[in-house]
Amino acid sequence: MIFLILSSWCESNFAPLLLAWVSVDCCQPSSQSSVIVILSYARIRLSLDGILRLPYYTTGKRGITLYLFMALVRRIGSSLLSRKEYSRFLDNRKWLEGALEGFSIENVLGISQLSSRPSVLMYGSCVSGTAFSNADADYAVLFLTQGNTEESSMANMLNYTHSKFIEVKREHHQKVLLSILEHIRVSFCSTVVKCEQIYSARVPFIRLFKSGSNNTEGSHLDVSLSFDGPRNSLLLRLYMEGDPRLRCGVLCAKKWCRSQGILDARRGWISAYALTVMYIFYMQVTKRTARIIDESEVNNILYCMSKQMLEGVNECFPFVGDVCSGSDVDIQNVLSDLHGFFHFFGGSMCFDFDTDVVDIRKNDKLVSKESWLEGINHFDEKTRWNLLGYETIMIRDPYEDHNLGRSVDFFRGERIREVFRLASETKIEDVLNELAKQGRLSSV
């Protein structure tokens, strides 16, 4: 029989916990009580419901490891993007789509009538289901076709890869975004209090600062013409929805990598998106998940969704709820997955950063760096650099031609390998203890 002793429970559930697992063997002639372990002053945000779900049937180090992991999962769950925050993103999407009523891309580019009115889709971690509190949403303005986009007069302005959408070539993004900005300013000059124009980014965008209404705070919207953003986000969402165990592991891996300082693409590290792709790849290769999604199917889903939203049938992606509870996934499996993930990329017998490629595509999959380089050997050095960067970590984007790890130089690459190696050689309970020491999660 196992008893749970809890003390020092204070407001906000952030107070230090004094926890003791006491095992009593009632079958012995004289019952002996022994304290297996005492975990003191662990700063864990936990609910009473979470405690009641702890694995009472487990004792010893294994029991403490599971307890720590459950505590981490609960804490991560409490730090995810809230339903209220997500509703605000949906309101902004609806406002932006309404503000674009009457906007015509044909007038801007001087081409014949091709599309219906603009559709606005959100993208980013808030859509994929891997967003923490205070995360932002990005917004893509898409145009559904209703004519022939393959006229020769439009060849220098549009891409024809996905016939159901009009894709404006990057060199014309600034012109279209400027027109969108002016269109919104005319009708909503009092609502949009400020704007920024960022055209030098890989994906050009405008940032609108919108005033609040009815005692609500103002907000900002990053607006682009990115088609790949919504596609990538939806693809990851399908993976997360189809396998709760996968999503739980991704969130824990993000927390760990953030704590080690290796998750920041703007500073030359890997992005949270790249890490998610790495985790999916690892789960697929090791057969820990059966989810293998045909990336080409996402185009049809996006088209149907955009069309339904324009017709007022759907609002957009529904909210992805809290991180999976113990009843949704086998916690021991996720724990094994997490440690296996560190070993897969940190060990010497699994993934080789010098020769292997992370690729979750189902079609035209690459298995080696050599085959990737052979496919682009006709490009000049500048184009190759723009696509692959330092070539230290090769992570293939599911849709675009570039390397998601292109900003990681040699020294940061070595640091990332070392972090994974050390984690793979560390007892998982020590890893969880380290995570438990971290402060409240920041936006990732």
UniProtKB/TrEMBL annotation:
Reactions performed catalytically: RNA(n) + UTP = RNA(n)-3'-uridine ribonucleotide + diphosphate
Domain named PAP-associated: residues: 338-403
Chief location of this protein within or outside the cell: cytoplasm
SUPFAM superfamilies xref list: Nucleotidyltransferase, PAP/OAS1 substrate-binding domain
Compartment(s) of residence: Cytoplasm
Pfam families: MTPAP-like_central, PAP_assoc
Single Gene Ontology MF annotation: RNA uridylyltransferase activity
Signal sequence bounds: 1-20
Requisite cofactors: Mn(2+); Mg(2+)
Residue ranges of domain Poly(A) RNA polymerase mitochondrial-like central palm in the record: 114-240
The enzyme's E.C. designation: 2.7.7.52
Protein name (record): RNA uridylyltransferase
Taxonomic source organism: Trypanosoma brucei
